[in-house]
Amino acid sequence: MDKIQHRKVPVNGINLHIAEIGDGPAILFLHGFPELWYSWRHQMLSLSAKGYRAIAPDLRGYGDSDAPPSPSNYTALHIVGDLVGLLDSLGLDRVFLVGHDWGAVMAWYFCLLRPDRIKALVNMSVVFTPRNPKRKPLEAMRARFGDDYYICRFQEPGEAEEEFARVDTARIIKKFLTSRRPGPLCVPKEVGFGGSPHNPIQLPSWLSEDDVNYFASKFSQKGFTGGLNYYRAMDLNWELTAPWTGLQIKVPVKFIVGDLDATFTTPGVKEYIQKGGFKRDVPFLQEFVIMEGVAHFINQEKPEEVSAHIYDFIQKF
């Protein structure tokens, strides 16, 4: 880990913190919520040892990167703009792209908006969701899953932050990272995101107290607002990406998901995949991997397997 280098790069009006290691063809890793560049530590070490240059930013709003306060500064156009600016700053024309969770969502947008910068994509957990011109995403989620659905609960600025603040930050991190409950994730206000403080959270073998403390230290400093703003910009994304309605993802793709992942077990997702919708919208989908007994934070839970899956795919290009 001490061989991973850190620096800040000015892009798109903000400073982005990046971690990087290795030389060779570049792989850009995009993390999710509530995560950091650190989520990719295993893959960075593994793939840099195989001759690749691994680059993992703290995305806008996270860790040691700048965090503008307004949700309107967290649209897909901002995030993809940050990443294009990062590639330009590093002198990289095209990269391999790897995403998970919100990083996967932004990876889909990156491939939709700037496929010319991507050699191939390995995406995890979140399938591509084509824009529905007739209905905003939050309206659709509320109608389907109710007001207790976690994305709906994240919408009111300050509300989730206040709830998180009543719980130890490390507990919030543990609660999210160790969750193995198949979706959709609904959290009534009376239950809260931290659950009962009297119920200890047992850490799995793949997550150490040191790992939790690293995440918790950064979120204690930065707060959760930056990460939550991605959820709060969903309807704005819908408005801004209207010109790209109906466009397919036209880069080579490998998709990996755990069979216990809440995003995979959310109603409608398996049907979308099995009935051909996913392949229709992502026509260059070359490999689809379902990992058995694996939940959402797949790149941390099964680091060696995920690193091998990434390597097996990108070495073809």
In short:
With 317 residues, this protein is of the alpha/beta class. It has helices at 41-48, 76-90, 102-113, 137-145, 150-153, 159-165, 169-177, 209-222, 225-232, 234-240, 262-265, 269-274, 277-281, 298-301, 303-314, and strands spanning 5-11, 14-21, 26-30, 53-57, 95-100, 118-124, 253-258, 285-291. The two termini are 28 Å apart.
Characterization of this structure:
It is a single chain. The protein is of the alpha/beta class. The chain has a single domain, classed as Rossmann fold, CATH 3.40.50.1820. It is 39% helix and 16% strand. The chain is built from 15 helices and eight strands. It has an eight-stranded mixed β-sheet, with helices on both faces. InterPro entries: AB_hydrolase_1 (IPR000073), AB_hydrolase_fold (IPR029058), Epox_hydrolase-like (IPR000639). Keywords: Hydrolase. It comes from Coffea arabica.
Helix content: 25-40%
> What profile does the largest beta sheet have?
8 strands, mixed
CATH C-level:
Alpha Beta
The CATH superfamily name is Alpha/Beta hydrolase fold, catalytic domain
Topology, number of strands: 8
Q: Which segments are poorly predicted (pLDDT under 50) over 5 or more consecutive residues?
A: none
Rg estimate, integer Å: 18 Å
Q: In the CATH hierarchy, what is the architecture at level 2? A: 3-Layer(aba) Sandwich
* Mean residue pLDDT: 96
Helix and strand composition category: alpha/beta
Beta strand %: 15-25%
The fold-level CATH name is: Rossmann fold
Order of helices and strands: EEEHEHEHEHHHHHHHEHHHEHH
> In angstroms, what separates the terminal alpha carbons?
28 Å
Lateral arrangement of strands in the main beta sheet: 1-2-4-3-5-6-7-8
The gross shape turns out to be globular
Number of helices: 15
